Amino acid sequence: MTAEVMAEVAPLPGSRCQASRGVLCAGRAEAKAGSSSGGAMARAWQHPFLNVFRHFRVDEWKRSAKQGDVAVVTDKTLKCAVYRIRGSVSAANYIQLPKSSTQSLGLTGRYLYVLFRPLPSKHFVIHLDVSTKDNQVIRVSFSNLFKEFKSTATWLQFPFVLEARTPRRDVVGSAPPGARWTCLQLDLQDVLLVYLNRCYGHLKGVRLCASLLVRNLYTSDLCFEPAISGAQWAKLPVTPMPREMTFPVPKGESWHDRYIHIRFPRDSLKVPSKPIEKSCSPPETVLLGPGPQPFPCPVASSKPVGFSVSPVVQMPSPTASGRAPLAPRPFLEVSLSQERSDASNADGPGFHSLEPWAQVEASEVHTAAADTHVLTHESAEVPVALEDTGSCEGFLPDPVLRLKGIIGFGGHSTRQALWTPDGAAVVYPCHAVIVVLLVDTGEQRFFLGHTDKVSALALDGSSSLLASAQARAPSVMRLWDFQTGRCLCLFQSPMHVVCSLSFSDSGALLCGVGKDHHGRTMVVAWGTGQVGLGGEVVVLAKAHTDFDIQAFRVTFLDETRMASCGQGSVRLWRLRGGALRSCPVDLGEHHALQFTDLAFKQAQDGCPEPSAAMLFVCSRSGHILEIDCQRMVVRHARRLLPTQTPGGPHPQKQTFSLGPGIAISSLSVSPAVCAVGSEDGFLRLWPLDFSSVLLEAEHEGPVSSVRVSPDGLRVLSATSSGHLGFLDTLSRVYHMLARSHTAPVLALAMEQRRGQLATVSQDRTVRIWDLATLQQLYDFTSSEDAPCTVTFHPTRPTFFCGFSSGAVRSFSLEAAEVLVEHTCHRGAVTGLIATPDGRLLFSSCSQGSLAQYSCADPQWHVLRVAADMVCPDAPASPCALAVSRDGRLLAFVGHSRCTVTVMGSASLDELLRVDIGTLDLASGRLDSAMAVCFGPAALGHLLVSTSSNRVVVLDAASGRVIRELPGVHPEPCPSLTLSEDARFLLIAAGRTVKVWDYATQASPGPQVYIGHSEPVQAVAFSPDQQQVVSAGDAVFLWDILATTESDQSFPGAPPACEAGPGTGPLEDAASRASELPRQQVPKPSRASPPRLGVCARPLEGGDGTFSTSDEEGPCEESCDPEGLGQASGPPVPTEEEAGRAGDGAWAAAVGSWGLALPPRPPGQPREQWRAGQGRWCRCRGLRAVGARDTRNSGAPRTTYLASYKSFTPARVSCSPHSAKGTSLPPASGGWLRLKAVVGYGGNGRANMVWRPDTGFFAYTCGRLVVVEDLHSGAQQHWPGHPAEISTLALSHSAQVLASASGHSSTTAHCQIRVWDVSGGLCQHLISHRSTTVLALAFSPDDRLLVTLGDHDGRTLALWGTATYDLVSYTCLPEPVHGVAFNPWDAGELTCVGQGTVTFRLLQRRGADISLQVHREPVPEAVGAGELTSLCYGAPPLLYCGTSSGQVCVWDTRAGRCFLSWEADDGGIGLLLFSGSRLVSGSSTGRLRLWAVGAVSELRCKGSGARSSSVFMEHELLLDGAVVSASFDDSMDTGIVGTTAGTLWFVSWAEFTSTRLISGHRSKVNEVVFSPGESHGATCSEDGSVRVWALASMELVIQFQVLNQSCLCLAWSPPCCGRREQQRLAAGYGDGSLRIFSVSRTAMELKMHPHPVALTTVVFSSDGQTVLSGDKDGLVAVSHPRTGTTFRVLSDHQGAPISTICVTCRECEDLGVEGTDLWLAASGDQRVSVWASDWLRNRCELVDWLSFPMPATMETQGHLPPSLAAFCPWDGALLMYVGPGVYKEVIIYNFCQKQVVEKIPLPFFAMSLSLSPGTHLLAVGFAGLHRPPGCSSQPPATRSWCGRFSAAEMQQGLWCWASRLVTPGTWAQAWQRSQVVNGPHAGTGQDSCKSPGASCCKFGDLKIL
């Protein structure tokens, strides 16, 4: 951003300044206000508010006008004079300001307050004329006369619908009796930004039309709250309404009981503070609308009153009483890919408890504005959950779904398919979505916004503009920026229906053909040349014609000339003088032909005249006419005729002679060929003389469209049967791009093992799709019997399908045939489902019968058939039947629509029957069940959707109503499903997909996703829970942008830690990643955290319940320093206690642990936890989230505030194999020397320092402090910390560096080390009581060092730097997030935390130091929930960042906050100041540079400094949350660290960011090397595969996979092909295997050979085969080019495969045939050796080894892995390590069948690798490493054990220089690269190591 961005600031009440909302648009100037004065003066006289009627003296009618029946009357309610406007015609009875339309009010206030009351049973209209910054006048109208929202470029019409609280309306649309006085608050700035994307200038005029009473109008820049009273409003950042504007409230009554407040748009509407582009519609990246809002409706029943589609104003009914649950309201769909709904704390929750203790009284009126409707509502006594009283935000992240792919083509028409001008992609519609498909990669991107099927498309010649029109009348058209996907303009076509569109080559002219409302053909020409520059679409000409037009094209030579064809006519058009004129072509004898398509071709003689172009026209009779456009005559006429073979039905040769022709539907012409598509299903390529057919391709249906690519090498074809593909003319191969159902999809099912999707459609087909490629695999068609439902067998390659005849058939996917058919039903099959184990199958029919089948064998048979069980006449639905996740229960709707029955799945005994048939007051009918769905077995929930638009959650055992979600959609939901972790509830709601946060009790409402043009019939989660599939008009595949792991705890269990996405949206390619910062500070434990390792920890309190700290209550006092040496708090379970069987075991242990939390400070909101997520997270914009202890709801709850400034240590290795007390050897005498570290600890905070003047640059990576020379890249490494380093601090003299780490398995306290910068030696070691140090800071004179403890310790300690003795120690009453010394006064120290700034003055009394504390709360007007960062500015200023993105400025002398502005939309975690510039870094990854030179002036001027501003000079977006930064004094250059593990060099002058250091985000699992040793590759838990250049250790390539962990990796051997054909094979946690091309930097293939996580992968010696093993013990053999798995070995089944090793060896001496010898080792201490020849499909077992395991081991049940490898220097030897009687390396000779040598080890090995070039064996341990010699004698030289725990080195790539000496090799020295990793075991594979190198994996050290 080069333009300056200005954030206007204004003083706060009480002489404290506050920034105006948002960062305004670039270069924003004040509105002229209709005069020549500046913006500052225009605003000054209108501040703080303006009484419009008084200022313009409406009573005198000199500057205003009245018309019709306008009178002054006295209102009894307000007891004052008001204006009454009434009359039958609104346009003839009004008050207008100003008097003349040529004048302007010049009101610049952002908010307009209209105080009015509608007259009963009448309609009213309010018109506002608003001027934009560019002086464009927009009319904004509100009326209860409007039926729907309408918009043009200059007019916005909003419906204002009022509805009484009675079930029936008296008058539709009119105001009900008893309408109350209303305060309508309009945010004019947001209205223009949201709906027209324009900048608000000023209010020009107002017209108030009959029929209403109006008291006054007010304008203001302040957002007033009409009624503020009671303690609950004390902490809210609101401004009370001035007395002059208030309505009178009698004593003892509530404001909301008498009046209504409407705010439009709502505060929760997330709108940009500046327009993105000039357009008529918002871009897809902007979230508009809060979506559905909760509305309490007090009625006599507990069921919600039914609502209409439009939002309404609820009025009280005289007969309504009782309490009702909250009902969310629907909202109008807008042109967005997804829409978010939020609920404020006043709105109440979407989910709510029905427990009696949770019922509270809410007496206020809640108001909202959702999208394009203005609405209000009231609340009465409503039930809410205890934890729901606070505000609650929604999902993390937002949006939670992202559209990944679409299966479908066409919709309205299959004729719309275009090539892009470069020929790389195809553009086509899929119902309401426009898809751009890259033909080479299959990647899709989407244009979302249309609400109906797309009827026409056009793309200009430069790929700049894309035009589209939708089918339903009146037709809405859109112009898109094709490169970015943004909608530039939305406008309504003059035509009723648009049939075709055509762009000129330059994109300046767009022509469309359609029908008007009388059905006449109409042609319209638009000028679009200014759209890309911010202009509008202009209608240039319109013309009506009586001739039929089937095709219309603009010539490529002259943009003013066009051609059309249709029934009996071919016409040439010209645009001239603002008119469209046409003339016919003389067709002669062909005048009666029905022409279907046309195409231009330039004349061969190269004539430059536009009229010299040749025109080709085709007809339904088979004629192709070649027309001379200059002479307007037919030059040639040819006809396509079928020629039958003597014995065959298909055409053999085509001629153009006489006879019955083949109907031609489309043609396309290139300079060399003409492509013709015909209704016989053939695509034919002809030369331009049509002498013979060059190529032809037969399709499965009539060809509807053909297009030749711009290069003429590919021909795109589409068929009416939904197929889209292209013919490659060079290779003569036809490539299918997309297949589609030709009718809506009715049901779907997904298969887990193979990643397949089955769909059933009204087109009578069942289709099987590959979820990875979205390509069709199988197609089953039934011409007579229509399929209705489908489901897969869980374990076999079989699926079941139910048909309309009542038949249920099973189909084999292997044989593609019907296996068994059963006809036990008499009606159409409505439900079909199998149990998870595949033993039973259930089906139901429309006659009410229920059938049970046994599927234990392929010849499945009927067990029982029960009549009259299921509700008869129920429509077929994916959720008609439901089976619990454990397969024990079956649920369905029956015997009637009002009951839900639960049965035992095996016995079919009825266990429960629930009656939900309550009266729906809206419809007067009984409520009925529509669909059922089970939650996870641990929850025991049964979800039922009903006809009254509710989702009821029942206890599956007792039938008790647990909670309900009312008003999910105006129409019943046919399908719903709950994720396996019970986090997300997915609902098919009309044409939208809604996602609810099921885990949060105080759900704010759903996220709503549009795109379907027809009702969604089915929704489902993918088997891996990473994707969502929705089916209706097409099949949509959505990525879930949040972790939904099954091992997370469920709602209702004690909340452990909250899970959030560690990464933002990631692609299957090299891409940028973003990460949200950690919010909580957990106590580290010695158990392994979850897989992602982001901010996770086990929880304290082993009793399984919440517990309160023993030190409750606020305290801030000096503590005894003697107690620092003792640990405090309850014991943390060790890894041995918690279990260490992988991530799942850890998560299970978390569920059984409790939670010990600090006490909640007074006034702090209770809702600081969010239950059931399993990890910590940072919810963007989240201030407080509710949760409660369900086991002990009566106990007091404690809270833990989320904070940006937090630190979570990485995995702590606490393996029993570690030797405690060992240390590193001397730097000069060890065998291994650390050479380089690649990686940065993004886990830390302020853990990087840089001094530009001295060049000193240091950062942390795990437990190391890395000091690097930025010029040479040389590194120094300062080890010593026992745990991961959390923060650094450099003294002001740059001579001392302090580093801090948390506690570890060997130290109960955190450790602070003080280093001498010049020598790199640790001078002092401090052991501190706090579990983790969040911040360090030196005083300005370097005499003191302050340490800030984490949220568990809550300590502040001061240390004297002379001896580093403790001089002061303070226990803090609440968590503190930052600390800093005043650089101008060494005696002042400031801390920031939860809503307060604490100033501490140091008072010295001899050697003692005491702290004088002064606390200042953050002003309410700032609205900052917590302060997360701080830095000092020019004296006496202090800048503080907040979690809500605000920056507030304090006067430290006066102790007050006088200024704030919105600096970001995420938490501010870093602030730096120098000179007159301020740098802010946020959790969104934004780094911003602010010019704050005027802030000092603002402090001096106080409330008079309204015109001064804070400018944003520059902005950069980095790859993660900013956690550390250092800049030079001028703030021009600096280094910035992010949570993504990246250090960036930032130059503001050049506006660049250069990546300095980049490491993996999570634990590294594997390292492999290229055959030439030039590159190495690593894979990590973060799902990335990275390729490094070993010479420079620079990152070369990165492959990223979404939400998956990459567990193993292999590099193809050198014999597999040329160097440029090198490939990587990567195995993932979902069982998938991906092949990456290193040369092309792309994924070549994805296969799914395993149903569970892979543990190892390796190439065969020739590289043509891939062997992979999984944790269930299966070994799969696959082809890496075709993706087929042709052999699966189950000999090791039951134990995980630890390693597979392959060596190239002839096996004749072993008595078998084979070219490869390979082994597999499993966790049960078994090793199998195999000989294979994969080209001949041979594989024979050579040897089988079983090693004994002792009965008891020191590992306490956690076995080390069994590892084996072939000896590279002796082909007959095999090395084995594993759990055994002795700790040793066993060398086995498989030729002699005996053990030949044993090498003792000090500990059990965790990893093993051998060097092919030297006789070296590397063995890794969990905490130690020893490289023994490989002979039978002990090593000739000394050995040492260096202790490096892998936990804190998980993100770094560590390079070592080593010198190993073995017997017989006195001085063999070599250097190799290697990785230090986490504690999990693995092994190296011989075939993927570089020659002369060995790799010891997954221990503390890796020797390469």
Strand and helix layout:
Layout: E1 5-12, E2 16-19, H1 39-44, E3 49-51, H2 52-55, E4 65-67, E5 69-75, E6 80-86, E7 94-97, E8 111-118, E9 125-132, E10 137-143, E11 150-151, E12 155-159, E13 162-164, E14 182-187, H3 188-195, E15 200-209, E16 212-220, E17 224-225, E18 239-240, H4 255-258, E19 260-264, E20 294-296, E21 313-315, E22 326-328, E23 338-340, E24 352-353, E25 359-361, E26 367-370, E27 373-376, E28 381-383, E29 401-407, E30 418-419, E31 425-430, E32 433-438, E33 444-447, E34 454-459, E35 465-470, E36 476-481, E37 487-492, E38 497-503, E39 509-515, E40 521-527, E41 538-545, E42 551-554, E43 561-566, E44 569-576, E45 579-584, E46 595-601, E47 614-619, E48 623-628, E49 633-639, E50 664-669, E51 673-678, E52 682-687, E53 695-698, E54 703-708, E55 714-719, E56 724-728, E57 733-738, E58 745-751, E59 756-761, E60 765-770, E61 776-781, E62 787-792, E63 798-803, E64 808-812, E65 817-822, E66 829-834, E67 840-845, E68 850-854, E69 861-866, E70 881-883, E71 889-893, E72 899-904, E73 910-915, E74 919-920, E75 925-926, E76 929-934, ...
Parallel strand pairs: 10-12, 13-21, 14-19, 17-18, 87-88
Antiparallel strand pairs: 1-2, 1-113, 3-16, 4-7, 5-6, 6-16, 7-15, 8-14, 8-16, 9-10, 9-15, 11-12, 20-22, 23-83, 24-79, 25-28, 26-27, 29-86, 30-31, 31-32, 32-33, 34-35, 35-36, 36-37, 38-39, 39-40, 40-41, 42-43, 43-44, 44-45, 46-47, 47-48, 48-49, 50-51, 51-52, 52-53, 54-55, 55-56, 56-57, 58-59, ...
